[in-house]
Amino acid sequence: MKHGSLILEKKEYVYIKSLLNVSEHSEGHQVQKSLIKFAEELKTAIILDEEEMLDDVVRLNSTVTVASGDVWEKTIKIVKPTEKDLKNNKVSILTPIGIALFGYALNDVVHWEFPGGNKEVKILKVTQEVGSENINSII
Description:
Strand order of the largest sheet: 5-4-3-7-6
Helix content: 10-25%
CATH architecture: Roll
Number of strands: 7
Number of helices: 3
GO molecular function: DNA binding; kinase activity; RNA polymerase binding
Keywords: Kinase, Transferase
Mean pLDDT: 86
Order of helices and strands: EHHEEEEHEE
Oligomer: single chain
Domain Transcription elongation factor GreA/GreB C-terminal: 55-127
InterPro entries: GreA/GreB_C_sf, Tscrpt_elong_fac_GreA/B_C, Tscrpt_elong_fac_GreA/B_fam
Low-confidence stretches: 132-139
Shape: globular
Protein name: Regulator of nucleoside diphosphate kinase
């Protein structure tokens, strides 16, 4: 892990914690397993103010290119659950891939259990949405 721990912006951290509290009773088994692992990782996360956030960290509204070895490469945008749109590659933070990538940084290799089994994915590119603050889109 590039920065030693997950990196989260303070307001996004609060939002994510509230999502976890609501989602613990409503998501499927695979998502529940991901949520539990994510909640454990959050215990050691580094929480930063907006102006301290690093551009290479995956957060809400980040566009992320990931690859699993030579098997596949995909570009997705991590969004809040109400904005998911798989046709446009907008993936909810409450999906296994959204949870797996959140708080990690460029070039990190993430080991996670996805619906198809344990996978290793590498973050190849992280782009932040230009012209708007991430938190403004979630509160």
